[in-house]
Structure to design on (913 residues):
């Protein structure tokens, strides 16, 4: 997974990290009762809905939503950043989706039901939902599904390299794709055939608008597969409804003024008549600056701020004109990551000592406004096949005895510790403050900490990926809440047999467990393999997981019916304005 | 006059060339590079080397500079490394926003600064002068972002008189013709939208215009006081002209020169201030474009955009110099 092809990426890579390490990233979710992959997790800790609708729902109105950044292209297959996905989810639907307000409940959307899976795990047959029309008036049917998957699988090389990230990450392209074929059986039935069984088949596709089905007529008319998206009217989003982002969702694309706003409007003919949008329109406005966004919310210029800084929560909670919306289960992880090539971190006693030295709860209180939980695994509890690992918890005495057991002392206990100088992430809202708090804890048990810092985009991400940092702060927001998305994609992927240089860690048995889990034909095998992988990580403790944060949304008190989700998979058709 | 203009235009060439060298050196000397921004976590040694080669970043610096200069001379400002979009098309989209903002800030600074300066001079040493001095000291010493947030907090959050950010209410649909909201709204015959655009301009224009306001006020005061003691002013008064006439025809006419010079110089400060103002007010202009490019070390975008800034600065100051002749007939260009 995560086949990242070099070559062009010139254009896109910008997009990539935005997504993965994203300010808030797109999608995710697991399966619930799916015929195959079952979610060990399932657990939905009652993600909160904004203000209980005690009064009757009011129809109409325009909602203005503040986002951390602008949309990138008006075609989900070309983007992987969280802002584009957040908007496009409301316009474009896939065969599968995630039950609103949950992380992991896979539901059929444009499929009439969850697919039928063959015993060998190699084919999935979908019955399609009848009588659905795209926003341009054309019919949704098997031809449209086949066209969309074929289009992405055979995308022009420059698009593969630089734009089309998720399709490559989940299936791979062209002849190398694990998606052997998508065939029309009849007008309302399609069959997917895989080369090898793929245990994330449902869970990886369900939350991502990148696997949405768009109108083939509009894609063709807008030259959507032009190798230079700058020349595709479809991707540039300047034609209005029916010309770009032409899906089947509860909202239709209306207009995009780059760097200023994107507007989507109610789809009055939505196929799911029980869930037609209440609002007339939603406008998304990018804010480069969180203080300005908070002022805009308080002034009434925006109705909903998708993300707010933990520091601002207290201000809003004391004001009855506003609400702070809990998003339920976390889908991210913040870590104290390590490179096992460097001394003294190659010594397991030292890593264990560090784990015992850290008072995770104190960081949660100081930097996350209490909205986080201490991590006890390398992935959050909502992830499929998660199990509590019983990792070391705060105990300075045990930390000291582990240091003693390591046989190291004096200068050998110096740790070079990197943090990013210019960024806030959902899983680390204040990297510098967090780094200092961690250093205090480490020095209290006998380590010496030597701080270093780099700019997030101008060196930090690239240098840590190249394995230049001994110890550093980083994390991950899920693309989908599967174990592979954290353990493999985010952390310990292999390049051939070589472990990711970022951590310089990867025993052969870990690779074997990953491979077995990824290609498991059935749920029991997958559960066993991913469980083994977690046990190996517990045994070796390659780095110290810190927290799973729960970044909230904030809204005006009269915004009702908003269903938050920890992966930002948030459909706005349930929202209405009590004004 | 024509000869003078040609000479000034020719003189601008070495200035721009020198600036291009300094800019080039400056952005290339910053730690980090665009490849790191481009690849992020996907960086591998092979990939990094490959992209550096693709972008020509592995060539010696002087060679990179010569290539850049060649492009510039053929009118090509280059492309963003990060999103592949051409600098020219991005500037076309964003410059109107910046011009509208800096224009409004300048109107605010001049429109208020000159009367305040004249007022302070007329009552020199009195309490009016004291108040004006305090205002201008505040204007010059409060950083734009603090003033910006403060204005937002009081006038938007508390009083709800004006919007916090953006160029228009996002619910408004306006067909882009010139990308100047004030113009496009009138072209569309939408007076309500025009009013909305003006409302959106007020706070950022005040925040951005505060420093030039302070400087123009001080300079006007000093220039007026300077002239007020001249013999010809006393003569004018002695022959019984009204104060107003003395002020307009004799004092201001002569006080204009330093004021206009300073106004010309403020344009540079306004363009620099736009970088911050546009971020605070989510204003879609060139300032935000430059900030993003600097964060990404997007060399060509930074170099080309700042060169365009410099060109504007030079052009405005040339206009100021030409303007002297109209303000003061004694000045001749030769």
């Amino acid at each position: 997974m995560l086949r990242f092809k070099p070559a062009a990426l010139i254009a896109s890579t910008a997009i990539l990290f935005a997504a993965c390490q994203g300010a808030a990233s797109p999608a995710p979710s697991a399966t619930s009762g799916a015929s195959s992959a079952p979610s060990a997790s399932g657990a939905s800790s009652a993600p909160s809905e904004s203000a209980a609708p005690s009064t009757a729902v009011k129809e109409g109105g325009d909602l203005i939503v503040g986002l951390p950044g602008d949309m990138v292209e008006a075609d989900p297959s070309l983007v992987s950043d969280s802002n584009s996905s957040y908007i496009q989810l409301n316009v474009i639907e896939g065969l599968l989706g995630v039950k609103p307000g949950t992380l992991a409940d896979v539901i059929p959307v444009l499929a009439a039901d969850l697919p039928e899976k063959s015993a060998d795990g190699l084919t999935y047959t979908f019955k399609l939902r009848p009588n659905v029309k795209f926003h341009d008036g054309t019919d949704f049917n098997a031809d449209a599904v086949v066209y969309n998957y074929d289009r992405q699988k055979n995308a022009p090389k420059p698009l593969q390299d630089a734009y089309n990230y998720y399709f490559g990450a989940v299936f791979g392209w062209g002849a190398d794709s694990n998606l052997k074929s998508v065939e029309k059986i009849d007008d309302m039935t399609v069959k997917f055939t895989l080369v090898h069984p793929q245990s994330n088949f449902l869970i990886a596709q369900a939350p991502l608008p990148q696997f949405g089905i768009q109108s083939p007529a509009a894609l063709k008319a807008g030259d959507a597969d032009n190798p230079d998206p700058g020349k595709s009217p479809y991707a540039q989003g300047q034609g209005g409804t029916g010309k770009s982002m032409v899906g089947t969702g509860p909202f239709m694309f209306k207009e995009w003024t780059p760097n200023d706003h994107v507007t989507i409007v109610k789809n009055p003919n939505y196929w799911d008549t029980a869930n037609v949008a209440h609002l007339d329109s939603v406008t998304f406005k990018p804010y480069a600056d969180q203080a300005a966004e908070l002022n805009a919310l308080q002034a009434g210029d925006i109705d909903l701020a998708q993300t707010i800084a933990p520091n601002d929560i207290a201000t809003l909670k004391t004001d009855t004109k506003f609400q702070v919306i809990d998003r339920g289960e976390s889908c991210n992880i913040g870590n104290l990551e390590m490179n096992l090539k460097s001394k003294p971190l190659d010594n397991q006693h030292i890593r264990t000592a560090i784990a015992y030295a850290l008072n995770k709860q104190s960081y949660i209180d100081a930097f996350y406004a209490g909205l986080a939980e201490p991590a006890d695994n390398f992935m959050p509890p909502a992830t499929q096949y998660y199990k509590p690992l019983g990792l070391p918890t705060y105990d300075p005495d045990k930390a000291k005895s582990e240091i003693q057991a390591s046989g190291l002392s004096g200068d050998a206990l110096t740790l070079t510790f990197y943090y990013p100088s210019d960024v806030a992430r959902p899983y680390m809202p204040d990297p510098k403050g967090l780094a200092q708090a961690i250093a205090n804890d480490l020095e209290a048990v006998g380590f010496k900490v030597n701080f270093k810092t780099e700019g997030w985009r101008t060196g930090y991400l690239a240098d840590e990926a190249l394995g230049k940092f001994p110890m550093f702060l980083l994390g991950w927001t899920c693309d989908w809440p599967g174990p592979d998305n954290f353990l493999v994609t985010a952390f310990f992927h292999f390049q051939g047999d070589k472990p990711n240089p970022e951590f310089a860690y990867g025993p052969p048995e870990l690779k074997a467990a990953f491979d077995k889990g990824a290609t498991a034909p059935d749920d029991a095998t997958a559960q066993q393999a991913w469980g083994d992988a977690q046990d190996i990580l517990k045994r070796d403790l390659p780095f110290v997981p810190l927290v799973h944060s729960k970044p909230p949304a904030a809204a005006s008190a009269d915004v009702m019916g908003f269903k938050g989700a920890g992966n930002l998979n948030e459909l706005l058709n349930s929202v209405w304005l009590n004004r | 006059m024509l000869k003078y203009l040609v000479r000034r235009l020719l003189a601008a060439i070495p200035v721009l060339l020198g600036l291009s060298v300094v800019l080039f050196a400056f952005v290339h000397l910053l730690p980090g590079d665009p490849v790191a921004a481009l690849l992020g976590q996907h960086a591998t040694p092979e990939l990094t080397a490959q992209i550096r080669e693709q972008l020509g970043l592995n060539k010696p610096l002087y060679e990179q500079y010569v290539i850049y200069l060649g492009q510039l001379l053929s009118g090509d400002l280059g492309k963003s490394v990060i999103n592949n979009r051409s600098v020219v098309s991005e500037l076309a989209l964003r410059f109107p926003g910046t011009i509208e903002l800096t224009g409004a800030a300048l109107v605010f600074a001049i429109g208020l600064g000159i009367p305040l300066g004249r007022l302070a001079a007329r009552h020199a040493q009195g309490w009016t002068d004291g108040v004006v001095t305090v205002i201008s000291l505040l204007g010059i010493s409060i950083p734009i972002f603090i003033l910006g947030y403060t204005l937002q907090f009081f006038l938007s959050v508390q009083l709800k008189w004006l919007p916090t950010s953006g160029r228009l209410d996002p619910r408004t649909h306006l067909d882009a013709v010139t990308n100047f909201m004030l113009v496009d709204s009138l072209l569309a015959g939408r007076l309500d939208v025009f009013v909305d655009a003006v409302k959106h301009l007020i706070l950022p224009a005040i925040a951005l215009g505060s420093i030039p306001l302070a400087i123009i006020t001080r300079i006007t005061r000093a220039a007026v006081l300077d002239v007020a003691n001249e013999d010809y002013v006393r003569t004018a008064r002695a022959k019984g002209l009204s104060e107003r006439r003395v002020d307009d025809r004799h004092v201001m006419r002569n006080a204009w020169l330093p004021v206009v010079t300073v106004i010309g110089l403020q344009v540079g400060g306004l363009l620099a201030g736009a970088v911050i103002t546009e971020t605070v007010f989510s204003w879609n202009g060139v300032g935000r474009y430059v900030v993003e490019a600097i964060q990404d070390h997007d060399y060509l975008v930074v170099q080309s955009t700042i060169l365009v800034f410099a060109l504007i600065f030079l052009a405005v100051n040339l206009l100021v110099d030409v303007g002297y002749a109209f303000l003061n007939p004694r000045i001749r260009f030769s």
Summary: The longest helix of chain B spans residues 191-228.
